[in-house]
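New to this. Explain the following:
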Amino acid sequence: MSNGDLSRDMLAALAWQIELGADEAIAEEPQDRFAEHAARQAGREASREAQAQNRERPAAAPVRQLPPARAAAPVPPEPEAERSDGPGSREIAAAAASLDALCEAIEGFEGSDLRKGARNCVFCDGNPAARVMVIGEAPGAEEDRLGKPFVGRSGQLLDRMLAAIGLSRAEPDPEKAVYITNILPWRPAGNRTPSDAEAALFLPFVERHIELADPDIVLCMGGVSTKHLLATTLGIKRMRGRWRRHAATAKPVMPSFHPAYLLRQPGDKRLAWRDLLAVRAVLDGAAPDFAE
């Protein structure tokens, strides 16, 4: 194999990993694979030498070998819970009288350690006067870098999806605009899925966000936002496609698939398209057909 062929194969493998979402190294320290290989090679040579020496010695009585002790399973970190040494997220959120005040309250909230591993607070994007409010799950690497929600590959797909029903985050007309936020304002390390405790901690801020923006419709993108906004244990495949009512604000909510999921499962785009058509119909005057 020529060097050119090897380079093409390596680039193709890298592109495949990026397509799967492995677009960032998350190890604490760089790993020297050459040193690891050399260490394994030295270990194999030492083992062969030891076996050769053992063959030259007279056979000894067999010794019963005890099974190796199992390493203790790693203890998962305790779920993040609201600290009790100050006002809680619900009290802080309720005190915010405007969207700007709510943003400042979230940036100053010290009840979560997520902010320590993030670059920016990702509060919102789009037109706050829009009739449609989109709520996703959590910022990714690109969102964290720019401080805006849905700006990576999934955000580009979201923009195309919304454009298909005549909506845009850049539109000044509230009738054609969207307003976008997430359940979490801070990026979880490694782009992991938000824990239930993290989502519950920031839920009062999200509900206050809905109250202050006062949209006509909430479009929930993904299982995390759907689970916590609608207080359900059902998965997104069971919840999507039917209008639900948000208990705290009485807003009609349409759960649908997260664009990141659709990038992995493009066959379900047809179902997401049905959800968007339902949103368009209500914007055009139809009454939401709420699930029982």
